[in-house]
Amino acid sequence: MRDVYSEQLDSIFGDLAAICRRVQTAVAQATLALMTGDASVAEQVISQDVEIDRAREQVEDTAFSLLSLQQPVAGDLRTIVAALRMVGELERMGDLSVHVAKVARLRVPDVAVPEEVRPTMSRMAAVAEDMVSRVCDVISGRDVEAAIALGRADEEMDQLRRTSFAELLSDDWQHGVEAAVDIALLGRYYERIADHAVSIANRVIFVVTGHNPAPAA
Amino acid sequence: MRDVYSEQLDSIFGDLAAICRRVQTAVAQATLALMTGDASVAEQVISQDVEIDRAREQVEDTAFSLLSLQQPVAGDLRTIVAALRMVGELERMGDLSVHVAKVARLRVPDVAVPEEVRPTMSRMAAVAEDMVSRVCDVISGRDVEAAIALGRADEEMDQLRRTSFAELLSDDWQHGVEAAVDIALLGRYYERIADHAVSIANRVIFVVTGHNPAPAA
């Protein structure tokens, strides 16, 4: 019985990593839809989100049955509770990708992001996607060093948000209110995806070490 | 031993309701700061958020020790796991109030919300605050009927968001990009506060009935 239990506990992290890869695809596709104005790619992100939701439910069911049938203590308990939270955050990252895809879809056949602010928005999307990719590795390898490094990647996202606001509030801005509002909200969505990646990385640190990481200065 | 356990389980819901009341105050004060441009009220919301964070940690510690020492099953287990999630959502609602307060502070001595869009923004803030107030009652009374009703209040928020976008994208908009971006982000913060209130109400339904409510049509 104990063997099956250990396997189930390990498999939860495998399931989380698999969901994380789906989220990574959703972020990448949402960005593609956004930058190209491709409605069918946007639709894919929106319609495939239900699969992330379903995978989350499975992890919750597994975690719940482990809690109730095995009555784990200490490290195992910490792992299962952390898994429940991580899967909630992954689902939320999927939702945020859907928000990005919906902005893209709303502007088809146009592209929501004007030419001259594309470098900043593309970089923001790339940083978010990279952070998701890295947190998938953190999950599957329970890699504390990589998790700590991820907290620092968040600084570039903060800087990009400031740059983005400066661009759309400059006197040279000629794309009106609608594009500015799109950019501000898109920036917010990518920033939240990055925040969740950092938060998940911190939960992995807690699972492995038993301690919460010190907050970044 | 069992008596202390039952008391602790009940006290978790009392703690959650108390945190919820703090969140309600934070939402109300953030709105006051926003509508009056009062920097000191904004500062209060920002500085007091740490108390919500601390109260969350206490609930987490209690929940964790109940899980590990009492090894609850079935309904009790469901309650504790739900409490862990609810407290995470309450903390997030506190963070969103801080975001509102920070927009207010950034525009002092001006007021971020132009005169003619105040009715919509005020109503959005009022709906959010009312939903928080109602979810506090749902938590303390474990009131399923009230929880179900809360899901429907969310519809007004969706409608208000649409009205708000129509206002700032209309040809009559004369307040420039900065105010429009503020309004769009503020709307998003209030909308998310409302979303979390509905989500917490749904968790209470799950705790009491053992079933997740059907999603709203």
Which key phrases capture this entry?
homodimer; Methane Monooxygenase Hydroxylase, Chain G, domain 1; 6 helices; 85% helix
What features would you describe in this structure?
- The structure is a homodimer of 217-residue chains.
- Chain A is mainly α.
- The first copy, chain A, has a single domain (2-109, 116-209), classed as Phosphate transport system protein phou homolog 2, domain 2 (Methane Monooxygenase Hydroxylase, Chain G, domain 1).
- Helices cover 85% and strands 0% of the residues of chain A.
- The first copy, chain A, contains six helices and no strands.
- The first copy, chain A, has helices spanning 2-36, 39-70, 74-107, 118-141, 144-168, 176-209.
- In chain A, helix 1 (2-36) packs antiparallel against helix 4, helix 4 (118-141) packs antiparallel against helix 5 (144-168) and helix 5 (144-168) packs antiparallel against helix 6.
- Chain A is elongated.
- In chain A, 41% of the residues are buried.
- The mean pLDDT of chain A is 93.
- At the A-B interface, helix 2, helix 3 and helix 6 of A face helix 2, helix 3 and helix 6 of B.
Topology:
2 copies of one chain form a homodimer.
Chain A: H1 2-36, H2 39-70, H3 74-107, H4 118-141, H5 144-168, H6 176-209
In a nutshell, what does this entry contain?
The first copy, chain A, is an all-alpha fold. Helices cover 85% and strands 0% of the residues of chain A. Chain A is built from six helices and no strands.
- CATH superfamily of chain A, by name, is Phosphate transport system protein phou homolog 2, domain 2
CATH architecture title of chain A: Up-down Bundle
Instruction: Please give the number of β-strands of chain A.
Output: 0
Oligomer: homodimer
- Strand proportion of chain A: under 5%
Element pattern of chain A in H and E: HHHHHH
Task: Determine the N-to-C terminus distance of chain A.
Answer: 45 Å
Count of alpha/pi helices of chain A: 6
Largest interface between protein chains, with number of residues from each side = A-B, 24 and 24 residues
Largest sheet: number of strands, sense, barrel closure of chain A: none
Q: Given the C-alpha coordinates, what overall shape of chain A results?
A: elongated
For the record, what CATH class of chain A applies?
Answer: Mainly Alpha
InterPro entries (chains A, B): PhoU, PhoU-like_sf, PhoU_dom
Family (chains A, B): Belongs to the PhoU family.
Keywords (chains A, B): Cytoplasm, Phosphate transport, Transport
Subunit structure (chains A, B): Homodimer.
